[in-house]
Write a structure and sequence with these properties.
By secondary structure, the chain is α/β, with parallel strands linked by helices. The protein folds into two domains: about 170 residues, Glycogen Phosphorylase B (Rossmann fold, 3-Layer(aba) Sandwich), CATH 3.40.50; about 180 residues, Rossmann fold. The chain is built from 14 helices and twelve strands. The longest helix has 18 residues. It is elongated and about 65 Å long.
């Protein structure tokens, strides 16, 4: 039996929350005992100090591994100092962040489990030993992904059957730059009033994006914010049947799970080019790509996509096929089973990669 504690800090995002949910619900199998603790408001521990005290009260044999999601969780696990640690950053680590992780690794047995090849490359380039930096991409729960259009949901969100609803992928963060989605769709709306924007309503910049959308078009009818409009918590997958297309407006490293979910839904995607996004999408293969920070080009791509049904079908079908092949939940669970067993026993960690035919650009080799 491998005993794992999933420890999340208060900066946890949708991707981290969903990954822990999958790992903790028993899908790893009966040979794994997984428990979850959270740090921050509403969690079991108020702060790092409280988390350290709580971990110290546990028996030394209570866990084999602490999987820390976020820097506060890693700090708590490192100070407690009683178990081997797997660490997954909840935000992209730049040079200073990697330096801090290296300092922790000098005193504790830590393996860094990255969700993108870009993050793993930065870690290795900045001094994390390559045998302690691993790549496990998030897995898509395909059972949650509904592809059929839902007219009733569209009406509840304020859209008509004739509207072209463009979904901004994922949470509104600084790196996601949903303000560019607002501007780009506003320009497309000026050219064709049927273009409308759908925002999830989560993330630290959600309010800013919503306010910008409210003033972008006269009458304030450009965008609908799903959680505000429906007055309840909404899972990201619930928004897919209301959308006709997806925009990814990232200017920096973003979490990739929402993009993979949109690929699985078979929605045509228009995206900016960044290192993390380019790991998933390729121009005119799985998406139409534009430079980051260029809303006018984004609008042009949206209009081009709307006018070309053949391109819509081609990129959406290819993206859906690649999502099912490369981002399956089975692959995600298999990789964590292997990693947890090896970390717990102190063996060399060799995370199994996808099959040789499964698209070399997804392997994330350093």
């Amino acid at each position: 039996m491998t005993r794992v504690l999933q420890l999340l800090d208060d900066s946890r995002d949708f991707q981290a929350h969903r990954s822990v949910e999958v790992l903790a619900r028993g899908d790893l199998g009966p040979e794994f005992d997984v428990q979850v603790r959270t740090i921050g408001r509403g969690g079991e521990f108020r702060n790092v100090t409280s988390a350290v005290r709580g971990l110290w009260r546990q028996r030394p044999d209570a866990f084999d591994i602490v999987h820390a999601w976020g820097r506060a969780a890693l700090t708590s696990a490192a100070v407690a100092g009683r178990w081997r640690i797997a660490f997954t950053p909840s935000r992209f680590l730049g040079p200073r962040g990697v330096g801090w992780v290296r300092a922790v690794m000098a005193y504790r047995d830590v393996h860094v489990v990255c969700t993108t090849a870009t993050q793993r490359r930065v870690c290795v380039e900045r001094g994390v030993p390559i045998d302690r930096a691993h790549l496990v991409r998030p897995g898509v729960e395909f059972a949650r992904v509904r592809r059929r259009r839902d007219p009733d949901l569209r009406r509840k969100l304020g859209f008509s059957d004739e509207d072209v609803v463009v979904l901004a992928a994922g949470e509104s963060t600084r790196a996601a730059a949903h303000e560019d989605a607002v501007t780009g769709v506003a320009i497309a709306h000026y050219l064709d009033p049927r273009f409308r924007l759908l925002l999830w309503g989560r993330g630290v910049r959600a309010g800013h994006a919503a306010r910008r959308a409210a003033i972008a078009v006269r009458g304030g009818n450009l965008a609908s914010v799903a959680e505000a409009r429906l007055a309840r918590a909404v899972e990201f997958e619930e928004l897919l049947p209301a959308a006709d297309a997806v925009v990814v407006t990232a200017r920096g490293p973003v979490t990739t799970l929402p993009i993979a979910i949109c690929m699985a839904a078979g929605l045509p995607i228009v995206s900016t080019v960044t290192y993390t996004v380019a790991e998933l999408l390729e121009d005119r293969h799985t998406a139409l790509m534009t430079p980051a920070g260029a809303p006018r080009r984004l609008a042009r791509r949206l209009v081009e996509l709307r006018e070309d049904a053949g391109t819509q079908w081609t990129i959406a079908d290819t993206a859906r096929t690649e999502a099912y092949e490369y981002f399956s939940l089975t692959r995600f669970l298999d990789q964590f089973r292997a990693a947890y067993r090896q970390i717990a026993t102190g063996a060399k960690v060799e995370v199994p990669e996808p099959a040789p035919g499964a698209g070399r650009r997804f392997h994330g080799r350093v």
